Predict the structure.
Amino acid sequence: MTAPAAPSIRDRRDGLAEAAAAIAACRPADAPSRDLDARIARAVFPALAALPPVEPGVWQGEDGSRVRALRYTGSRIAAATLVPPGCWIDTEGSEVVVAGAEGEWSGTHAVEAIALCIAALRARLAGPP
């Protein structure tokens, strides 16, 4: 068995653009959304872009099974899965901070799960390839 190839510079750049676009889409949201969940999932798991969509946040896998995005924007527990390894979550009022050895990244939103999505995606943008 061979190890998976390291992401190319182009793949990394595309992933960063997807994450930035997901953050931008989260900011004006007024409620949790499966469309946002799908956008976040594609930013974190770029291979989803190659699968045919069935509905927002659901794709058809190569074997015919369904691949579903977590409800990142509606569940703090799901949003917490976006936090990079080695980082932790602090909540300060309506602001959520993802902190780690490399720094702190914040997200502010009326919906706590969306604020956490923003902070976690910002931390991922700053992280290693």
